[in-house]
Design goal:
Strand content: under 5%
Structural class: mainly alpha
Largest sheet: none
Oligomer: single chain
Distance between the termini: 45 Å
Number of helices: 24
Helix content: 55-70%
Order of helices and strands: HHHHHHHHHHHHHHHHHHHHHHHH
Length: 430
């Protein structure tokens, strides 16, 4: 398994004509989009992005700051309210949550907001949005520089920056924008030939894991790649000789420890001292099962597409999700398999593992609407874009097809289908 492809230092001179725009132009476009999208709301009422539901707002009365927060016309609200509770009052925010252990384990985003806002409750609602805008821009910049490094147009990074799942995450004050921005930056700086860049990459992954653990597939695959395919030996026989294997084992373990240990330590501290006996991991499984209890949920969870099947009969929104989330994910899985048949590298595994976890075996609770499916698919889109340079070099005959499938994740396609299938109705469209 080769891992050096992530670290090509710069594009060749002959490839520079492939650039149709600057990475900084991509960042400017993404920044302008989000500022125009969120500006009026920030001026009028920044609490509309937090989505505080009446049920959770009335769940406790221990925090004076939270008690004075503005709710929306909804009973449950959305997940962004919990990160607001943690950011604005770390001591009493737990009282307003059903699963405080899960929220407190994702400390990166709310604590960044608290630090940048100086703990000022009046400023925090604005900073929640602005931090995620910076994260969306930063993630798009990382992808753009990665693509330019490999001689591809940086403009394809707009697909990431303007991916509808990422947009909805920014609009709802969620953790995904910051987590995947850090992951994209870690992928950009990763280079197995440089100890300093390995340290920087693992550290960025460590921060990403403290923000949201769903980025874990990327550092896990890279650690495995460092173990079995550092790119220095030329043959598999050489790679498994004692000296290179020992060197690779040390690098792999060190990389994995730096990436995963901060979250492990924080969760231990959290459950031992801050929230004793709290659950820090969301439950996974299917609600549609024949066997009873935990065993039944576990068996049902390994049935492919069980979450999508549970939504039957599908509405227009469900069909939109199938076309703009499931279809491109499966197409890119096929592309990843074709790449692996040509050469064993890590990037296709990014695609296959993210598709397996966040599309094929997705938990029922996430398949309820596009907002949940879209944010779960941010890692799939990032993985596909990281694999795009390999498609251009190893599957040139499929390159145009692969780029075409990327458009299924785009904002215009999602808007068009959402209007046709959600607004007008599928029975009229068919």
């Amino acid at each position: 398994m080769e891992v050096h492809a992530l670290a090509v230092p710069r594009a060749l001179r002959g490839e520079r004509s492939a650039r149709i725009t600057s990475p900084w132009a991509v960042g400017a476009i993404v920044a302008a989009f989000y500022l125009l999208l969120t500006g009026p709301g920030l001026i009028h009422n920044p609490y509309q992005f937090i989505n505080i539901g009446r049920h959770f707002h009335a769940k406790a009365s221990s925090s004076t700051v939270i008690n004075h927060a503005r709710t929306i016309d909804s009973s449950t609200g959305y997940d962004g309210q919990f990160y607001y509770f943690l950011a604005v009052d770390p001591t009493h925010g737990r009282d307003y949550m059903d699963a405080p252990g899960v929220i407190y384990s994702r400390i990166g985003y709310p604590m960044t907001v608290r630090v940048l806002s100086g703990g000022n409750p009046a400023v925090i609602p604005y900073v929640l949005v602005l931090v995620n805008i910076l994260a969306a821009v930063g993630g798009a910049l990382a992808v753009a520089f990665f693509l330019r490094r490999h001689g591809l147009p940086p403009s394809w990074a707009l697909l990431y920056g303007l991916f509808p799942g990422l947009i909805l995450s920014v609009l709802r004050d969620l953790t995904e924008p910051m987590a995947f921005a850090l992951a994209a930056a870690a992928l950009l700086v990763f280079d197995p030939r440089s100890k300093l860049r390995l340290l920087a990459s693992a550290s960025l992954f460590g921060l990403a894991m403290l923000t949201r653990e769903t980025v874990a597939l990327f550092p896990a695959i890279l650690a495995l790649g460092l173990l079995v395919g550092s790119g220095t030996p030329t043959s598999w026989r050489d790679r498994f000789r004692w000296r290179p294997l020992g060197r690779n084992l040390i690098r792999s373990i060190a990389f994995a420890e730096i990436a995963f240990l901060p979250l492990y330590i924080w969760r231990h501290v959290l459950t031992a001292y801050v929230l004793p006996n709290a659950t820090t991991q969301e439950s996974f499984g299917s609600s549609q099962h024949v066997l009873g209890g935990t065993a039944g949920r576990a068996v049902a969870a390994i049935v492919p597409f069980h979450a999508l099947e549970a939504q039957w009969p599908w509405t227009g929104e469900d069909v939109t999700s199938l076309i703009t989330v499931v279809l491109p994910a499966l197409l890119w899985s096929a592309i990843a398999i074709m790449l692996l048949r040509r050469k064993l590298t890590v990037e296709p595994w990014f695609v296959l593992t993210n598709v397996a976890v966040f599309v094929v075996f997705l938990p029922d609770a996430i398949a309820v609407d596009y907002g949940s499916l879209g944010r779960a698919s941010i890692g799939v889109v990032l993985a596909a874009l990281m694999t795009l340079p390999q498609v251009a070099t190893m599957l040139p005959e499929r390159s145009r097809f692969a780029r075409g499938t990327l458009t299924l994740w785009s904002l215009p396609v999602w808007l068009l289908l959402a209007i046709l299938l959600g607004g007008i109705g599928p029975k009229y469209v068919w």
